[in-house]
Write a structure and sequence with these properties.
The chain is mainly alpha-helical and 471 residues long. The chain is 67% helix and 2% strand. The chain contains 10 helices and 2 strands, in the order αβααβααααααα.
Length: 471
Amino acid sequence: MEPVSIASLTIGPQSWREKTKHSISLAEKLIRQSDARKSSSASPCRPRSCTLGLLSHVNTPVPLELNETEKNSRKDSDNVNNTQSSYKVRPMSTGTTRFNLASGPLVAPFPPPCLREQCAEASVRAAGEYMREVRGVEGQLRKQACRVGQEGIKLERERAYLERMLRSLRKDLLVNQKSVEERTLRPPTTETGRDGADSLLDCEKKQLSELKIQLEGALRDTLTQLQALSQCSKLLLECASERSCVLDLLPHSGYHSAGGRCTPSQVTMKPDPTGPYTPECKQAMESSSLALTQSQLLREQIRCLIGEAIAQQKSAHQLVNEGLVKKIAETVSLKQHLTLSSASARQAIYRKQRQLNCIQHSHGRALGPVSSGDLMSRERLDRPLVQVYQRHPGTQLPEAMHLIQGGAVVRQCLLSSGGELAQLRGTRLKLMEDMRGKGAAAQVDSSIVRLRRRLIDRRVMPSFFLQGTSA
């Protein structure tokens, strides 16, 4: 048996030796990895002024542990970079973030010593920026609420003008009704027929009623719009109050206030449920803008409507007054003609009365005395001269026949003159009655004109409502 050299033999088992070699190789790798990272990890902490940029690397993945399968099959020739690619990663919190001053994340496996201060400063800056943006949104909401309130004041002023105009129209309608009622007080025999003044009063009533309906509709629209503006203002103030609940620690002036870096006009108006400008704020702003536009259009319509109503009201009032004045002038003119006709009729009656007296006297003279004993001898038909003349035949005198015929003619004239006198007197009575009716009608119409001029509302409206209505 040949002797065996111990030096060439391996006494220990192969697995035992491989395990030791693997441990040594792993130790060398960790040493090289630690030496490679030592130079970069020795850098100072990042200044606090750069803290805001650190928030972008909060979720940077870092190696945690070796994969068990790859750990057993890894060889000694693997370098540090290949070893790092076999790590399993997961998102880290702020406390385990790796940082690099120049190019972003550091290769150091641990956070810098000033991480707590950096995170606190970053949180303060993020909260301050959010608060300033919220302050800008709140400023816009309150500014919009102020505009809505001012528009409500203007629309309330227009509503007051509408109500004043409606009161004026109602007063004019009452004056119109009273005018119609007073015109029924004219004499019923001659002056109760419908005329042009009655037609003008009817037209005025119809026109005023239409204007009243239009203004009442505009007033309803105004009240509805005022309610909408009130709701918009309430919603804006609620949104502003809800936004301002995070502004207790934000100063009202200075660099950190809303005017320091973020004014209301600089806020990016993009709705975000978790941002400063929420969809509720957007909805409130849009609804209030729409309400403002509608209110402005409504105010313009109200101004035009009131101006047209004033013009039509004034025109109708003047037209009726002019019609009544013209009717009064016509009535007075007719009354004057009636007065002249009545005077002429009275003169004719006096003349006819004198003529009738003469006819009656002639008739009485033609009839002679009532008693035959009162006849004088020259009036008797059998007086001596006639008796002597009638002694010869054919000597009859026509005296008796002429007396009879003359008496009949005088009687006929008496009857006709009496009838004419009665007609003249009746006509004069009618003229006098018509004249008194015309006088009473003129007085009624005059009182109506005075009533209308006294009771018609002296409108106190702004000058822009009265433009174009004075013509």
